[in-house]
Amino acid sequence: MIKSDSTISELEKQLEEKTTLLNQRNKEFAVINSVQEGLAKKMDINAIYELVGEKIREIFNAQVIDIVTYDKKTNLIKDRYAYEKGDRTLVDAREPIGFRKIVIDSEKYFLINKDLDLKSKELNSPVIHGEQPKSVVFVPLITNKEVTGMISLQDMDKENAYSDSDVSLLTTLANSMSLALENAKLFDETSHLLKETEQRNAELAVINSVQEGLASELDIKAIYELVGEKMRNIFNAQVIDIVTYDPKLHLIEDQYSYEKGDRTLIGPREPKGFRKHIIESGKVLVNNDKMEEAMQEYDNVVLIGEVPKSQVYTPMISGGQVKGVISLQNLDQENAFSDSDISLLSTLVNSLTVALENARLFDETNRLLKETEQRTAELAVINSVQEGLASELDIKAIYEMVGEKMRNIFNPQVIDIVTYNAKENLIEDQYAYEKGDRTLIGAREPNGFRKYVIENKKALSLTRTWKQKD
């Protein structure tokens, strides 16, 4: 009977340990899933930190929690998530001091459960924002053996607030989410590069419209038509117009105009109102609200159509002189134009002005277009890998994604990807495609072209007809 009771007690103990471990694992997965959820919804990195922070706050029911990232190159930490009894203030980038510096230098967690006032003075760790806590724990986020940030929990009301199990769980969570957050950061950086590439593509699309008109020997009116239509497609604008300015005659003239289908062009006239201001200042003018006040301020009169709710005017400058003005307008909503819209429009106008003034940009434009297309192709492949990492695919699936992406980019009849094991001097197919045939050849010694590439560590390109020697 004693033995039976002992066995039951041991089983109950094991069950309790397993249950605790399972609960901890579930909490760990909840945080990781927050990161994956953000990636799946294509959230930016700040939104993902928000998801993670809220999930950790929910798990620990913490009064105070913050997540900071650390940039080793600049030696700066930056708040990514902060919560202190409802206060969500984020502190700007700064050098780490005190407790956080200790965590970065030691690469270990840091726990103080009592005498925090004394410890703060000893270790030069003043409160930058909010109240002095009674208990704190800091746990590093480590990626590739380097501290990339940290998570902090703080209790404002009591000492000894954090047990060993709390520290253990927070450490486990930090270890698990470090790689996921790093992948999310890389994905976010790649997305930013892709957006920059898309903006550059839009810019080149307008330039190419001008070059297309020049190459086809179209008259200048037809070139403005091409450019206006291209910009209307890019911005999906309700109203867009392009006017040129002749400084000698002090006259502006519509070259392209579109307002909800109305294509009326107004002839030469003296500039007034908003356009007069643009010509005199040479600067962008944005009115995202209070249009009636703006019209009075600049003494502007609508000649045709409706009064807009939002507008942006950008000067076309060449040789230090304003040569025209491009305007986007929204008739239905205020705050229609974001900073990115204004930035893109300014970039487009700058490029357009130069293109119209100088036809010799043709060769340069083509070169930039090819570079952009190549960069887009590179980013497409990188995104495939990041997508695979974000989806937690195995390496075979990632090779498959990369191979398919490259096949779509180059449209080749044959493409294969092989890996090389230098120790065993073996190559092995990871992806293969030949007119629909997906056969993968197993490990083998390299010979021929692949042997040449491995030995010389250089690309090999064959564009002429050749025969393999017997």
Name of the CATH first level of the largest domain: Alpha Beta
- Share in helix: 40-55%
Shape: flat
Radius of gyration: 31 Å
CATH superfamily of the largest domain: GAF domain
The CATH topology assignment of the largest domain is Beta-Lactamase
Widest beta sheet: strand line-up: 2-1-5-4-3
Tally of individual helices: 12
Low-pLDDT ranges: none
* Number of extended strands: 12
Averaged pLDDT? 82
Count of spatially separate domains = 3
Named at the architecture level, the CATH assignment of the largest domain is 2-Layer Sandwich
Largest sheet: 5 strands, antiparallel
Strand coverage percent? 15-25%
The class by helix and strand makeup works out as alpha+beta
- What is the element string, with H for helices and E for strands? HHEEHEHEEHHEEHEHEEHHHEEH
Q: What is the first-to-last residue Cα distance? A: 84 Å
How does this structure look, described?
The protein has about 475 residues and is α+β, with helices and mostly antiparallel strands. It folds into 3 domains: about 1-180, Beta-Lactamase (2-Layer Sandwich), CATH 3.30.450.40; about 220-360, GAF domain (Beta-Lactamase), CATH 3.30.450.40; about 410-470, no CATH class. Helix content is about 50%, strand content about 20%. It has 12 helices and 12 strands. The strands form 3 sheets. The protein has a 5-stranded antiparallel β-sheet, with helices on both faces. A 5-stranded antiparallel β-sheet has the order 7-6-10-9-8, sandwiched between helices. A two-stranded antiparallel ribbon has the order 11-12. Helix 2 runs antiparallel to helix 5, helix 5 (about 165-215) packs parallel to helix 9 and helix 10 (about 360-390) packs antiparallel against helix 11. The protein is flat and about 105 Å long. The chain starts with a helix and ends in a 14-residue tail after the last helix.
